[in-house]
User: Fold this.
Amino acid sequence: MTTISKEKHLDMFLKMQRIRDVDMTLNKLVRRNFVQGMTHFSVGEEAAAVGAMAGLTYDDIIFSTHRGHGHCIAKDMDLNKMMAELAGKATGVSKGRGGSMHLADIEKGNYGTNGIVGGGFALATGAALTQQYTGTDNVVIAFSGDGATNEGSFHESVNMAATWKLPVIFFITNNRYGISMDIAKATNTPHLYTRAEAYGIPGHYVEDGNDVLAVYEKMQEIIEYVRGGNGPAIIEVQSYRWFGHSTADAGVYRTKEEVDEWKKKDPIKKYRTYLTENKIATDEELDAIVAQVKQEVQDAVEFAQSSPDPDLSVAFEDVWVD
Ligand SMILES: Cc1ncc(C[n+]2csc(CCOP(=O)(O)OP(=O)(O)O)c2C)c(N)n1
Ligand SMILES: [Mg+2]
Assistant:
């Protein structure tokens, strides 16, 4: 087991709490038309995002999904600029032109959330080819849900990455549903990581994707392998989204009992128990982090609300790089 410093533990706890607080806050603000356009929350999946990225540097690159607020926060996106983007303001990370599914921060290696399901696989494979071609030892992560792995782009990208031994990790957060479609009704294999075998690459599984340390440990192993020039890998982690697919979801495809069962497996509570029981942190220290995050999120909302709308003249900026 890797030794994790107290500082790192607290940072991981803070990021999980930040993801939770941002999406819980947005869930309330959506009803007040704060969010421009559609948005998807990842409450319940915090451990997957933070565990996946705790071992990366800013030179390592990620491609996120439509459910990407957590990925952005785990990759240290500035909270004010993120909130401003969600509100469609000029001070946003994408100058207010993108919203929830166009959050990017290239300097920190975040190549963006993406409204096209399966849209990130090929982009990540291309970015990994750049790393190989230019001789860096950076790794690239292509995040996806379970449903997205039935897109042709997944199979084409994994095949190419495997054949060319590209430094890309296909990270699947299996929350059991693609909108209302149960993965078991859409896929003839119980586990998605086993698809790795068909491409001759390693496939890994974390059964408790709500255990941030289990995800982090597994990713440490995978990152080392991929950074070492051995080619790509697939990892599937099991988790669950507490809220509906998006802000428009009646939730008729799953029972309240199922949702309640998963709420009992709260990744933040689990981590808090670990930290206090192992005397890594006290309840007071963790409460202080929760309070700090609450303040940060409130400040970010106020920053967004008091920011100006973008000028129409910026609509066609940054669409072409010569
Ligand atoms: C190419 C494409 N097809 C369909 C959609 C509509 N859509 C948005 S999210 C989604 C389900 C994705 O499921 P999954 O990959 O499991 O991710 P999750 O929402 O569970 O995080 C679909 C079908 C889309 N955005 N893009
Ligand atoms: Mg899913």
